[in-house]
Write a structure and sequence with these properties.
The chain is of the alpha+beta class. Helices cover 31% and strands 25% of the residues. The protein has a 5-stranded antiparallel sheet with strand order 1-2-3-5-4, with helices on one face.
Length: 143
């Protein structure tokens, strides 16, 4: 059975560093994740929180962004929940390929592919008033 840490942060980007620190500290407990994977998870969670904060600002929601960090023997699962009305992942415009010159005009939109490349599993679930992003990073294999 795992342990879970719950955070609620205001929808402000100046709280992202705090979330990264808490995720890194929690994921590093008992060496569940290798240091590189802790960094990957921290970055993926930061992207999920940044997206949640941006969405809530656009929706004028002042409710807190909720972050749950679940420490399991098999790895770490982080859930980020916003209150911004939700979105459909399949409707997000795909980015041009990395070697496409048009990609240089994309200042935003890298968060979803980045999360998907850093975590073993990323799911997006609609909620009553927003979206829940679940990121899972697996533990290092036993030596």
């Amino acid at each position: 059975m795992g342990r879970t840490i719950h955070l609620q942060i205001p929808p402000r980007s100046d709280y992202l560093a705090l979330v990264r620190r808490v995720v890194a500290a929690a994921a590093g407990v008992d060496d569940v994740l290798a240091d590189r994977r802790v960094d990957d998870l921290s970055l993926a969670v930061s992207e999920a929180c940044a997206n949640a904060i941006d969405a809530q600002r656009r929706a004028a929601s002042t409710l807190p962004v909720e972050v749950a960090i679940e420490l399991l023997p098999t790895g770490v699962v982080v859930t980020v929940r916003d209150h911004a009305g939700g979105f459909a992942v399949e409707e997000v415009d795909p980015l041009p390929a990395a070697d496409d010159p048009g990609r240089l005009r994309h200042e935003r939109g890298l968060g979803l592919p980045l999360m998907q490349s850093l975590a073993e599993s990323v799911t997006f679930t609609p909620t009553d008033d927003g979206t829940e992003v679940r990121l899972q990073v697996v533990a290092r294999p036993p030596e």
